[in-house]
Amino acid sequence: MGISTTVIRILISFLFCSTLSLGRYLSNDNLFREVKRLAKEKRTTKDNKLFFKTGEDLPSETIGTAHEDIVLECQAGGKPAASIHWLKNGIRIQQGPSRDYKNDELFVEEILNEKRGALIGLGFTKSKLYLDCLSPEDEGEYSCVAETATQRIVQTTQVSVVGRFESKAHEKCIVKKSIHSASARIFLWTSHRVEISGASVQLMCRVEGSPSPMVSWVTPKGKEISHPTEKYEVLSNGDLLIRNISWKDMGSYTCSCANDAGVDEISTFLYPTRRRS
């Protein structure tokens, strides 16, 4: 039996079992539809492991008004789960405090699972790019790049700025959103993850803002992870590491970030599945 067939059967089992016993976790029908579509289209085959989420493609053109804000969004799924970054006219855009691009990768998870053999590694990753106080300088081609160690896919949108641009109005906008009071924001996170029980998983939650936001995680049972344990650890980059996952770990984990200027919050759904013999 090929690995892609195994994954497809696991996903179908996920839908069936979740419907029977986990309605309180899966009230969001979007998760059902997305996993079902993934299984139906056999997106996990060898030749097509990485893809952008259907219905959420970047538009060919994005139009914003001078001095206002826009947010570009991108979501990719695949096996293994991808990391996402953005380019403007082919040049990488820095997001967050770290300039170590390797920090984008699920490096801790990979180390812990190195000797475990074949894993599922199926996941969806989402990213936002915030463009504040638009000016003509913000016009250009913006690319969402989703990649793994072996694959890379790209979506692009052409950003245009309309409306009258006034230097004083722009300066006022910039001062209002100065570096000294930039609201806490989450720009990269894991939205869904499927993995074999017994493995370790790293759920991404990358943040930006000034002062540097404080990151916190809450389990599906509503317990805040305040300090490292044998089970949970909030990494320095904001990600949540969960060791030796089991069926009881299934559910929505909430990542929150906050600073003096604002708060932001996302959720990620974890589905541990049985190891097939």
Written overview of the protein:
- The radius of gyration is 20 Å and the shape is globular.
- The strands form three sheets. Strands 1, 3, 6, 9, 11, 12, 15 and 16 form an eight-stranded mixed sheet that branches. A five-stranded mixed sheet has the order 2-8-7-4-5, with no helix packed on it.
- 17% of the residues lie in helices and 40% in strands.
- About 13% of the residues have low confidence.
- It is of the alpha+beta class.
- The protein has a single domain, classed as Sandwich (Immunoglobulin-like), CATH 2.60.40.
CATH topology call: Immunoglobulin-like
Overall mean pLDDT score? 81
Query: Regarding CATH, which class?
Result: Mainly Beta
Which percent bin holds the helix content?
10-25%
Low-confidence sequence ranges: 5-28, 38-48
Query: Architecture in CATH?
Result: Sandwich
* Radius of gyration over C-alpha positions, nearest whole angstrom: 20 Å
What series of H and E elements makes up the topology?
HHEEEEEHEEEHEEEEEEEE
Intertermini distance: 11 Å
Largest sheet: 8 strands, mixed
Total individual domains: 1
* Estimated share of beta-strand residues: 35-45%
Q: What would the principal axes of the Cα set say about the shape?
A: globular
CATH superfamily: Immunoglobulins
Main location: secreted
Protein name: Ig-like domain-containing protein
Subcellular location: Secreted
Pfam family, one: Ig_3
